[in-house]
Write a sequence for this structure.
């Protein structure tokens, strides 16, 4: 696929699409590495401004490669994209990025490292650097370790420093590649809170992850990659809508319960064993459909079926993810 | 800020159907367009806006994407990112309808980055250690010569000259060190410049900052050149001080037998420093080019040093005299033109032209490689 921008003699970057609505747009974005590996295959992505966008996919599905292309680190083989309505070189001062883990100068302190990366940004002011660096360190809870050499940082501290580096200036877009990698549970929660906080200021956050629960909690939108291809793309709600909520009934009288549920018109009624539980107790599950769970309970009891427990399992992104990317553990390609 | 409901994602199927850029271009000029040139990028909007409106049905499922070839004018094309993003400085875009103005480049930003680079180089223990080694060599050579003998012994050439005058040690130190030790020192710094950052992963963050590839390359080269001059100056200073302590001061007798004042002798040392510094800066360009090709700094450093040694060997083969003028190390030793009477400006000029040619050639190679390279480290 080739460019068409030259045909009308248009200077590049003059109000391209996405200038108002989308923080990131890609069209047929493709990366074939030397050696023939197609890491990203005709990717069409639209990341609305102000969204928290989860970018999901199993290992090796092309998330990092996509992010590298968006940051201008890797040149696409084909396709087009825009970041903040323009090309990376112009957009990057307004973009904070974390790509494939932290990378800093081991012999410098955390603070000196941030000063170094701030100096690399031609739009950053030297005068405000000290204040911005202190704020960024404060935000990720590293103030106490600011003067410590990076070499002596723990994995979580390194990850935090990388997030601090992404927050050095006023950002319109944050691109975070697996930001909670290596963080302790508190750190993970803090990052989640931080992302929500940043998003509430109107900053778009594009976050890659394979922690589905995390994405479900933080994100408004998500896209799922598999082997370089986009397999799903939408709001979290619309993604989950593909998988129905299920009611799960724990009962010693599984056939009876199943019969009642079928009688009420519930679809996909299944009887499952419960691991390690009382041998006589079984789990009967069915698609909830439009039924009210309390009515189901009443109906079961009315029919003389003993109910030990009743729960509604909302579909999780994990179900969607596994459905779209397969159960297999091995990486593709 | 958009919520999940009011901004469903682009329905790709719709976009495919509606994006016919060439034909829709003239009719769909958006009203907010300020210049005629901006019409082309605007033409994507219909397709995208339409699909935004109808892409996801209410309550409908997520967009499951079917890929297909389509063109969207206005997006960053491969050709643009590959050839223009870095290679052509961009005229500021007429930010039509983009609410927050793009932050402006700051005056002095280049010097700030260079300052950061210099601070990094001159605070790094390894680099300081190499300078210290360079400083020690003239001291050792001076003490050695002092122990070997007094001026009236029948020593010949350079050794006699050094023993006879305090300033001559500087030239002796140069003629010894430019063969290998100074080239190695400069190669370590310049060869590590890009490869070290790539290997450590810091390169991707520098470029995402965004440092700019051409700008970063320029900074890296200037930094290596400053280090090359620093190394040269360290050798000269150490040799000068050692010479003044160990050997008699006074008018300098040149190799040709002419005698010049001590002040003029110092001037000629300054001239030699300028020339040798330029020689080492030319070598830095070679090492930097090597550095652009690898993520392993030791590889770039070793390649440069091997090249230097190979050239010294080739230079020593009489049958290959014809190629000698094209080899960089051939010109390293020509600083002795400052010891002629009068100074052999022609030889110095010739050497400087060779250095310039090497800087241009290897600078271009480094730039060609680095500006289009995929940063996958
Ligand atoms: N420099 C490279 N050369 C060749 N192939 C590469 C290169 N970098 C990545 N790949 C391949 O591209 C594919 C996508 O890799 P990428 O790093 O984008 O995956 P990812 O989705 O980020 O995975 P993870 O979740 O493990 O981080 C993989 O198959 C990988 O082997
Ligand atoms: Mg990755």
């Amino acid at each position: 696929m080739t460019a068409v921008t030259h045909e009308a003699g248009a200077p590049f970057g003059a109000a391209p699409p996405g200038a108002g609505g989308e923080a990131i747009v890609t069209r047929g974005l493709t990366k074939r590495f030397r050696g023939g590996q197609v890491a990203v295959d005709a990717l069409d992505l639209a990341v609305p401004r102000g969204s928290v966008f989860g970018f999901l996919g199993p290992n090796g599905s092309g998330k990092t490669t996509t992010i590298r292309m968006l940051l201008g680190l890797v040149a696409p083989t084909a396709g087009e994209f825009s970041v903040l309505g323009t090309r990376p070189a112009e957009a990057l001062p307004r973009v904070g990025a974390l790509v494939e883990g932290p990378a800093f100068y081991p012999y410098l302190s955390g603070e000196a490292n941030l000063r170094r990366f701030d100096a690399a940004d031609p739009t950053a002011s030297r005068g405000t650097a000290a204040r911005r660096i202190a704020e960024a360190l404060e935000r990720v809870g590293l103030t106490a370790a600011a003067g410590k050499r990076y070499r002596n940082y723990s994995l979580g501290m390194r990850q935090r420093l990388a997030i601090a580096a992404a927050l050095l200036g006023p950002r319109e877009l944050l691109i975070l590649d697996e930001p909670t990698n290596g963080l302790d549970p508190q750190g993970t929660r803090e990052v989640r809170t931080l992302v929500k906080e940043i998003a509430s200021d109107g900053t778009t956050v594009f976050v890659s992850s394979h922690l589905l629960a995390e994405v479900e909690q933080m994100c408004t939108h998500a896209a799922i990659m598999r082997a370089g291809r986009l397999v799903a793309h939408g709001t979290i709600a619309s993604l989950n809508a593909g998988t129905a909520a299920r009611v799960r009934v724990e009962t010693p009288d599984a056939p009876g319960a199943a019969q009642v549920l079928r009688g009420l018109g519930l679809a996909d009624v299944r009887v499952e064993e419960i691991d390690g539980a009382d041998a006589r107790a079984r789990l009967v599950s069915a698609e909830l459909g439009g039924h009210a769970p309390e009515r189901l309970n009443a109906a079961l009891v009315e029919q003389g079926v003993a109910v030990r427990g009743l729960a509604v399992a909302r579909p999780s992104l994990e179900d969607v993810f596994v459905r779209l990317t397969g159960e297999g553990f091995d990486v593709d390609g | 800020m958009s919520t999940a409901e009011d901004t469903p994602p682009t329905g790709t199927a719709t976009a495919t159907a509606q994006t016919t850029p060439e034909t829709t271009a003239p009719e769909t000029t958006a009203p907010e367009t300020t210049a005629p040139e901006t019409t082309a990028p605007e033409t994507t909007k219909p397709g995208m806006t339409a699909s935004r409106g109808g892409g996801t049905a209410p309550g409908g499922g997520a967009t499951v994407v079917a890929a297909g070839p389509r063109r969207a004018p206005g997006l960053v094309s491969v050709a643009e990112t590959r050839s223009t993003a870095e290679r052509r400085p961009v005229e500021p875009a007429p930010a039509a309808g983009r609410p927050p103005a793009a932050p402006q480049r700051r005056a002095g930003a280049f010097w700030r980055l260079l300052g950061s680079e210099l601070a990094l180089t001159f605070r790094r223990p390894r680099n300081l250690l190499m300078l210290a080694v360079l400083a020690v060599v003239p001291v050792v050579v001076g003490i050695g010569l002092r122990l070997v003998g007094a001026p009236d012994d029948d020593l010949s050439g350079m050794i006699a000259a050094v023993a006879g005058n305090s300033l001559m040690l500087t030239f002796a130190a140069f003629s010894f060190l430019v063969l290998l030790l100074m080239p190695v020192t400069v190669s370590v710094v310049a060869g590590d410049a890009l490869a070290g950052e790539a290997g450590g992963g810091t390169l991707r963050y520098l470029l995402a900052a965004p440092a700019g590839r051409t700008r970063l390359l320029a900074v890296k080269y200037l930094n290596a050149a400053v280090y090359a001059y620093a190394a040269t100056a360290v050798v000269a200073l150490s040799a000068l001080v050692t010479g003044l302590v160990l050997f008699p001061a006074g008018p300098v007798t040149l190799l040709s037998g002419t005698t010049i004042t001590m002040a003029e002798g110092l001037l000629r040392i300054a001239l030699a420093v300028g020339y040798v510094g330029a020689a080492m800066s030319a070598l830095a360009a070679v090492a930097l080019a090597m550095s652009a090709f690898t993520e392993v700094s030791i590889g770039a450093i070793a390649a440069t040093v091997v090249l230097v040694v190979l050239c010294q060997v080739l230079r020593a083969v009489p049958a290959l005299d014809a190629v000698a003028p094209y080899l960089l190390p051939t010109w390293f030793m020509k600083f002795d033109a400052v010891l002629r009477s009068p100074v052999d400006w022609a030889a110095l000029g010739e050497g400087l032209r060779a250095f310039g040619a090497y800087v241009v050639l290897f600078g271009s190679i480094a730039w060609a490689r680095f500006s289009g390279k995929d940063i996958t480290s």
Summary: Chain B is about 60% helix and 0% strand. Chain B touches chain A through 97 residues (CB under 8 Å).
